[in-house]
């Protein structure tokens, strides 16, 4: 028929294929510093190097929080959490350094009792090799 539009046979481009995002990622093994008894902490996921985006740059600076009991193999230390920061990437290994320590909330709450006062203090200490340590102290009255 003259004057009528073209007959369409389907949508332009068709349906987009779904790609599993995990196919573009690599697993890296997290290693704790040598001071701890167990060095193998776990695994971290990161996008593969693609163009100008380098995988090691996105991994450096990541902070991992681990229970001290897992690192030392001592269940008496289960209330302490250690923060480790990724400093270097060698192959598929992430080398970490100590970044901080904290107590679990249930342990902190168990320390505070009725009719007690809580005294907290903090101080920044600079070491001779340039590191800055921030120390926190907590005390209780009877």
Largest sheet: 5 strands, mixed
Let me know the number of strands.
7
Q: Residue-averaged pLDDT, rounded?
A: 89
Low-confidence stretches: none
Query: Strand order, biggest sheet?
Result: 2-1-5-4-3
How does the overall form come out from the CA principal axes? elongated
The share of residues in helices is: 10-25%
Strand content: 35-45%
Query: Gyration radius, to the nearest Å?
Result: 26 Å
Order of helices and strands: EEHEHEEHEE
Q: Please, how many helices?
A: 3
Task: Kindly describe this structure.
By secondary structure, the chain is mainly beta. The chain contains 3 helices and 7 strands, in the order ββαβαββαββ. The strands form 2 sheets. It has a 5-stranded mixed beta sheet with strand order 2-1-5-4-3. Strand 6 (118-126) and strand 7 (132-140) form a beta hairpin. The longest helix has 7 residues, at 105-111.
Structure at a glance:
This protein has 142 residues and is mainly beta. It has three helices and seven strands.
